Amino acid sequence: MRTLDHADFLDMRRFPALDGLRAFAAVIVIMFHFAGPKYLWLSGWTGVYVFFVLSGFLITTLLLREQDRTGRVSLKAFYLRRVFRILPPYLVILGGIVIFVYLRGEFRFRFMPEVLPYYLTFFNEFLPGVYPTAPDNFFSGSWTLGIEEKFYLFWPFLLVMAGAVGLAAAWRKLAFAVGALAVMIALVPITSGWLMHGSQKTLYISTIHYSILLIGCVLAVVMHHRRTYALVKPLTHPLAAIPVVAVFAVLHVNMEDLWWDTENNLALFLVYGVVVALLLVVLIAPGPMRWVLSTRPMRFVGERSYSLYLLQQPVHFIVVLTIPSLAQNRLITALVVVLVGLAIADLIHRWVEQPAINYGKRLIARRRAKRAEAAQAMDETQPIPVTKVATPA
C-alpha cells in the first residue's frame, strides 16, 4: 500500500468513485423528502452540498488541465459544454412539468406564469423569497441549479483572468481561490446572516452556497500543482480512508441534530464542506472506498443523478396519484420514487443527455478544426523572408 503520486493523479482521466458519491447524494436527498421522520438521521438535505463541493472540484480540475494541455482555457468551449450538458435535460423536465400542470388545469393555480421567468433564466433560488406562499409546482428543488449556473458563468472567467494578470503560479492561484472563498464567506452576514433561527427564507440566496462550491475549487487547485499536492498526499494512502470516512460518517449522521442545536448556524455548512473535500481525496486514491463507489450500480445511478434529482418532485406526485397508499412519507414511498425516477432518468440520459453532450463535443471539435485551418491558411499566405547575401567587392 502506498500513496498516490502526483503524476498518477494527473494521468487519471476519470474519477469513477465520484459518480458513486453523486448517487449517494441524489438518493439521500430523495430520502429526506419522502422517507419520513424515521430517516432524518440520514441528513439527506446535505446531499446538495456534496454536489456543490463535487462541482467546484471537477470544474476547476478540468479548467486547470485544459490550461496545462493547450496553454489556455477556451471559455467558449467551456460554456458550450455546460449548455449542452445542463440545458437539454433541464428544459425537457421543466417542459414536461409545464405540460402536465396545464393539462390538469392548474397552470395558474401553481403560479406557472410567475415562476417560469425565474426557471428559464436560472434565478430559481430567489423564488422562495418572492413567492413564499405559492403552491408546490414540482420544480422547486431546482433552486440549486440557479446557484450552480452562476458559478459556471463567473468562476471560469475569473480563473482565466487570474492567469492573465500573472496569477499562474501554483501558490498564487491557490491564493486567488482562497481569496474568492474568503470574499463569499465575508458576504454571508449581508446576504443571509449566519443564524437562520428556524427561518430559511434567506438561506437560498446566501453566499454560503458559493463558499461550499469554492471549497471544491480550492481542493482542485491544491491537487493540481505538484508543490501544493504534497499537502494532501498523505490522505491518499489507503489507511487514511479509515479516519476520514469515520469523521465524515459521524458528522453526516449528526448534521440534522447539529443544524437545530446550533440555531441553524451556516458555519456548520463550511465544516461539512471541508470534510466532504477531504473525502474526495480519499475517494480519488486507490482503496476499498473507491472500489465500493466505483461499482457498476453506483456509477449507473451517479451518471443519471442530475435528471433523478430534478425528477423527484413530479415523480412523487405521479406515484401518489397512481398508488394513493404511498401518500404518507415512509421508506417504501422514497424507494418507489427512486426506482421510478431512475427509470425515467435513464431514458432522459440515453435519449436527451448523452446525444446533447455528444453534439456539443462535435460542435467544439468543428470550431477547433476551422480555427486550425484558418491558422494554417494564414501561415501559407505569409511571405517567405529572403536573406540577402552580401557580394564581395
TrEMBL record:
Residue ranges crossing the lipid bilayer per the database entry: 21-41, 47-64, 84-103, 152-171, 178-197, 203-223, 235-254, 266-285, 306-326, 332-352
Q: Name one GO biological process term.
A: lipopolysaccharide biosynthetic process
Q: Which UniProt keywords apply?
A: Acyltransferase, Hydrolase, Membrane, Transferase, Transmembrane, Transmembrane helix
Q: Which Pfam families did the record assign?
A: Acyl_transf_3 (PF01757)
InterPro entries from the entry? Acyl_transf_3_dom, Acyltransferase_3
Key word Cell cycle present: no
Locate the Acyltransferase domain: which residues?
A: 16-349
A molecular function GO annotation? hydrolase activity
Q: Which GO terms describe its cellular component?
A: membrane
Q: What is this protein called?
A: Peptidoglycan/LPS O-acetylase OafA/YrhL, contains acyltransferase and SGNH-hydrolase domains
Organism whose genome encodes this protein: Actinokineospora terrae
